[in-house]
Design a protein that fits this description.
AP_endonuc_2, 12 helices, binds zinc ion, 12 strands, alpha/beta, disordered N terminus, disordered C terminus, TIM Barrel
């Protein structure tokens, strides 16, 4: 990596002459747009303490090209309305910095269980889903990622799937345009969505299928039994996903190694390369063309340290160099 430590402006010119497709774009703000030539958008889940726009600033500091964020407190069902000035500031920063809404993936509240057999919890979850989608609209965002739900072991998976789909249909009716992105689960407890066929069952029941998608979390997939540690494991998982659900529904990836072993059903994230999945799966991801142009989001314990993030991105693709080079370029 040492030969990449030269002046950033110079690198840009070299890249332009090296035949980058969008090389003629030398504007300051073009940096992130230029990033599109790599087609891989790596970022992390970042905090919103101090104001929702802080998420954009944190992502910029880290040198990410995509990010995830919560839309409010994780402790409360009823939250104060999103401040319009803060939302405007968020949107302004995103457009200034060239972030496409398709590369920003808000994460739903952990309180929600849209599959809950308890009527009061279901009602509150459905209301929170509507509230969060409205927040996305106010922020100019197009995707919203959440955990499908849990049967709590007292209703069947099919009944749970019905509830989840009906909450989604209701929320779609109440809000415009935002795509609800179901996250695959680790299979912990009675959660639904560990198996691709369960995600497909939910999608099948959604009336507006242009507004539903999937985010695949690598830790959850591995814990649910998809062997990403095997050679070609990522390709095999995507093939299976394509067959059972359809790649057109894949909107994002959560990049997490796993503290638990294959099929352990535990939702325990680990830093990339330090867990049971191992670095080779993540290299496969970075080199997999089917994962172009979607957000690849780190939710690992060490993700918020800038240097760690840079090193992590560099480790993911040491040969092609695209991501680390872009990381270098984006540092001012
Ligand atoms: Zn999640
Ligand atoms: Zn995740």
């Amino acid at each position: 990596m040492s030969q990449r430590k030269r002046g950033t402006r110079k690198r840009k010119n070299e890249d332009a002459s090296a035949g980058e497709k969008e090389g003629e774009d030398t504007e300051e703000r073009g940096d992130r747009r230029k990033n599109r030539a790599t087609k891989k958008y790596i970022g992390a889940h970042v905090g919103i303490q101090g104001g929702i726009w802080k998420a954009v600033e944190s992502c910029m500091e880290m040198g990410g090209s995509s990010f995830a964020l919560f839309l409010g407190s994780q402790r409360s069902w009823k939250r104060p309305a999103l401040d319009h000035t803060a939302a405007a500031k968020f949107q302004e920063l995103c457009s200034q910095q060239g972030f496409d809404p398709a590369h920003i993936l808000p994460h739903g509240s952990y309180l929600m269980n849209c599959g809950s057999p308890k009527e009061d919890v279901f009602e509150k979850s459905q209301a929170l889903l509507v509230d969060e989608l409205s927040r996305c609209n106010l922020l100019g965002l197009s995707l919203y990622n959440f955990h499908p739900g849990s049967s709590l072991g007292t209703i069947t998976t099919e009944q749970c799937v019905d509830k989840i789909a009906s909450a989604i249909n209701y929320a779609h009716q109440e809000t415009p345009s935002v795509v609800t992105v179901l996250e695959n689960m680790s299979g912990q407890g009675s959660t639904v969505g560990g198996k691709f066929c369960e995600l497909k069952s939910i999608i099948d029941r959604v009336r507006d299928q242009t507004r539903v998608g999937v985010c695949l979390d690598t830790c959850h997939a591995f814990a649910a039994g998809y062997d990403l540690a095997a050679e070609g494991g990522v390709k095999a998982m995507l093939d299976e996903f394509d067959q059972e659900v359809g790649l057109q529904y894949l909107k994002a990836i959560h990049l997490n190694d796993s503290k638990g072993k294959l099929g352990c059903n535990l939702d325990r994230h680990e830093d990339i390369g330090k867990g049971h999945i191992g670095i080779s799966a993540f290299r496969e991801i970075v080199n997999e063309p089917r994962l172009d142009n979607i957000p690849l989001i780190l939710e690992t314990p060490g993700r918020n340290q800038n240097q760690w993030f840079q090193a992590e991105a560099a480790r993911l693709c040491p040969d092609r160099g695209a991501i680390p080079r872009i990381m270098e370029e984006m540092k001012d």
